[in-house]
């Protein structure tokens, strides 16, 4: 084994040396007189600046230099090499075209660099940062057909702000601007910075927009800098309104009429069916409180707009309510396009009418889905879904969804006695765009809160073993504080599992009490709550996702009835023992973006479920599982754990779904884009599940202080085919640490033998899945 390892190392060394040699030969493709541009460097010469200030200025200036040199990877320029070795294609397609212009990168030459332009950029940027007397020069250094441009900046002393003045006069607009002076971003003693000045103008504009100045613009504010009134490199700033500011921008506007077109169509406007603006005399028949809803066919209840619109007649315009209204109209889910116009209706009173032009989505839709799938438990199958959606069920933007589905899974290879699985079911959901409750719920969020009512039934048959009838009903709420924070509370979530047709073969295979719990009658009811926070939609280098879930079942009922299964006081409802437990689960994810095409994704899952009162065990359907395409990918689905329990002790053909009451899992995945839709990944997964109590049939399953030695580890590589509407994921993984091996032998490195076909069969796990694992 060691000799093979040495051969691999030599091969990698030779390959790496060859890659370096080839990459270094990029200059041989240059024509006579051409120089490969390898970048620009800025040197800052100023003894009065600290090392930190110099480094910050240097980094900012170098970022502004153009053009950028050819990209590098590990010190090499492979894209440039591909461009050089590819033949010039005769057509805009084919392998050579793809290699040269899609994978490859055209050489950046010294002749492409406008050094005088970069010099001016350096001086201008420095002046914008307060170095008013900045001077820059440049020099070119070349060697072996490679050239670098060295820019030398002598910035001089940096000017600081000595005083900030806001123009004062008796006009309404200036009185309002004065209200913002105490929170100005322009601070005496701080360096002069043009970017801060731009931010200050935006701040003033935003503040005025909140106070009715709809037509105001940041360009209407000027910040004058005067360096003559102070000595010692100081500058005084004077914030004032531009003299040529339009009169309309200085007026404070309020809302006159609020007019909604909930069935707006541009073609109807062209045909003269209605016009914008409307004649005020024609609005009376459409009045609803302070809103006019132009809906002759009565497709929508006017009350939904009363809840969604934050502008009422007589209100002073402000941007927050403007954006809030648009977002709430969109989040109703019934409108495809939402357009807003403000049209001056009374110039003397400074009033305008607010028009909302809403184009509905298709109210009803019917969708048939046929799916094929496979998983890491060697099961393959198909699923057929028929979904019907009505987006305005009671004319109040209520969404009604009904679905009927059927699925069949069969096992490919693996155990000879494996049983196939057939599922069929139906479910319906009514989603109401408000909180239906005996108490008043006020939300100023941009997202409409919803009340969800669901009913479902699923028939599940595992051939030759058993049949399960699953009934589910839930009533609850979903609301979002903002785009990052979401709450979901199910006031009641009921699940009834009723087994049927349990065969003798099942009892022959399910020889332990744990395995037989899958066919026990289960009645689970209680509230569940989940909180989600994410900022992954923001263009940031580091983003996070967190979801915490709390599931409480049978708690009040157990307390009222005095249920205690350990004291032989098991209570039943309609002849079925109800479950009583508390379960909490946390899912935390961290994403770091290295470049636009490379990133690192990590995830931590921690959960615990504790049975008590009327339950000795957690219901099988509510336990934790590990392994599979979205978990620890080096182990097949639901085969890992609990603890150090050895699944090899189970006889072939026996059901081996392994569940636990405690779960810990950590995943890390490096992702990179190769070409358009083709992405690659390298990943490491670790974790396991454990039981709260001892199980004599599964030694080593209980959670103990030895849990760290029972963590399973797997690693692998994968391809992701990202077609925008669908992401197909292919992962190949192998176990690095197996918790059920003897202590001291759990790391798998000493057992790796790629040439052994039986080893590959037992240790290389291939997963096919849709979407990213996290």
TrEMBL record:
Superkingdom field: Bacteria
PROSITE patterns from the UniProt entry: PROKAR_LIPOPROTEIN
Pfam families: Omp85 (PF01103)
Subcellular location: Membrane
Keyword terms of this UniProt record: Cell outer membrane, Membrane, Signal, Transmembrane
GO annotations of cellular component type: outer membrane
Record-given protein name: Outer membrane protein assembly factor BamA
Source organism phylogeny: Bacteria, Pseudomonadati, Bacteroidota, Flavobacteriia, Flavobacteriales
């Amino acid at each position: 084994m060691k000799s093979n390892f040495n051969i691999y190392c030599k091969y990698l060394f030779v390959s790496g040396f060859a890659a370096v040699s080839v990459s270094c030969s990029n200059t041989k493709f240059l024509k006579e007189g051409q120089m490969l541009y390898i970048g620009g460097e800025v040197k800052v010469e100023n003894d009065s600046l600290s090392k930190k200030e110099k480094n910050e200025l240097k980094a900012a200036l170098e970022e502004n230099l153009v053009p950028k040199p050819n990209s590098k990877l590990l010190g090499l320029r492979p894209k440039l090499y591909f461009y050089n070795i590819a033949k010039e294609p005769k057509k805009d397609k084919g392998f050579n075209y793809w290699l040269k212009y899609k994978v490859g990168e055209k050489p950046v030459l010294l002749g492409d660099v406008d050094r005088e332009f970069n010099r001016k950029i350096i001086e201008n940027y420095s002046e914008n940062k307060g170095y008013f007397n900045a001077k820059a020069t440049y020099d070119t250094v070349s060697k072996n057909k490679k050239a670098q441009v060295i820019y030398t900046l002598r910035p001089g002393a940096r000017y600081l702000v000595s005083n900030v003045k806001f123009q004062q006069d008796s006009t309404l607009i200036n009185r309002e601007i004065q209200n913002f002076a105490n929170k100005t971003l322009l601070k005496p003693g701080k360096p002069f910075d043009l970017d801060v000045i731009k931010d200050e103008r935006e701040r003033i504009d935003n503040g005025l927009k909140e106070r009715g100045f709809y037509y105001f613009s940041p360009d209407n504010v000027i910040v004058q800098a005067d360096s003559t009134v102070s000595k010692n490199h100081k500058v005084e700033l004077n914030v004032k309104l531009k003299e040529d500011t339009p009169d309309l921008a200085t007026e404070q506007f309020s809302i006159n009429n609020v007019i909604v077109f909930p069935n707006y169509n541009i073609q109807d406007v062209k045909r003269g069916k209605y016009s914008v603006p409307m004649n005020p005399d024609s609005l009376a028949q459409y009045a609803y409180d302070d809103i006019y809803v132009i809906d002759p066919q009565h497709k929508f209840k006017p009350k939904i707009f009363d809840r969604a619109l934050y502008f009422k007649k007589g209100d002073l315009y402000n941007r927050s309510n403007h954006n809030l209204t648009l977002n709430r109209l969109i989040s109703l889910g019934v409108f495809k396009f939402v357009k807003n116009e403000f049209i001056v209706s009374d110039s003397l009173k400074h009033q305008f009418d607010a028009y909302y032009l809403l184009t509905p989505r298709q109210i009803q839709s019917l969708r048939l889905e046929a799916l094929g799938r496979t998983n890491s438990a060697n099961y393959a199958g198909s699923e057929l879904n028929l979904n019907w959606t009505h987006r305005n069920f009671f004319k109040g933007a209520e969404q009604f969804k009904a679905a009927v589905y059927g699925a069949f899974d069969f096992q490919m290879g693996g155990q000879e006695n494996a049983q196939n699985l057939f599922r069929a079911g139906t479910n319906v959901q009514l989603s109401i765009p408000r909180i239906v409750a005996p108490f008043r719920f006020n939300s100023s969020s941009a997202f409409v809160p919803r009340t969800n009512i669901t009913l479902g039934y699923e028939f599940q048959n595992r051939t030759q073993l058993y049949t399960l009838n699953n009934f589910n009903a839930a009533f609850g709420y979903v609301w979002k504080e903002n785009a990052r924070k979401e709450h979901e509370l199910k006031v009641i979530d009921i699940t009834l599992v009723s087994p049927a047709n349990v065969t003798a073969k099942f009892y022959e295979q399910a020889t332990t009490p744990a395995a037989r719990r899958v066919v026990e009658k289960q009645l689970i009811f209680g509230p569940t709550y989940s909180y989600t926070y994410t900022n992954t939609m923001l263009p940031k280098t580091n983003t996070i996702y967190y979801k915490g879930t709390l599931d409480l079942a049978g708690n009040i009922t157990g307390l009222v009835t005095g249920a205690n299964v350990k004291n032989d006081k098991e209570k039943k409802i309609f002849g079925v023992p109800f479950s009583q437990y508390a379960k909490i689960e946390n899912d935390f994810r961290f994403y770091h973006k290295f470049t636009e095409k490379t990133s690192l994704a990590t995830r931590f899952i921690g959960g615990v479920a504790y049975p008590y009162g009327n339950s000795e065990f957690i219901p099988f359907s509510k336990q934790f599982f590990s392994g599979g395409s979205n978990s620890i990918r080096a182990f097949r689905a639901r085969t890992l754990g609990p603890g150090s329990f050895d699944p090899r002790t189970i006889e072939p053909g026996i059901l081996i779904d392994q569940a636990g009451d405690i779960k810990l899992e950590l995943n890390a995945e490096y992702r990179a884009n190769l070409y358009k839709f083709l992405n690659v990944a390298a990943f490491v997964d670790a974790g396991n599940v454990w039981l709260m109590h001892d199980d004599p049939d599964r030694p080593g399953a209980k959670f103990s202080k030895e849990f760290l030695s029972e963590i399973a580890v797997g690693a692998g590589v994968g391809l992701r085919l990202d077609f925008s509407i669908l992401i197909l994921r292919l992962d190949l993984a192998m176990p690095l640490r197996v918790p059920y091996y003897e202590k001291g032998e759990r790391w798998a490195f000493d057992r790796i033998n790629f040439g052994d076909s039986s080893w590959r069969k037992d240790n290389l796990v291939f997963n096919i899945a849709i979407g990213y694992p996290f």
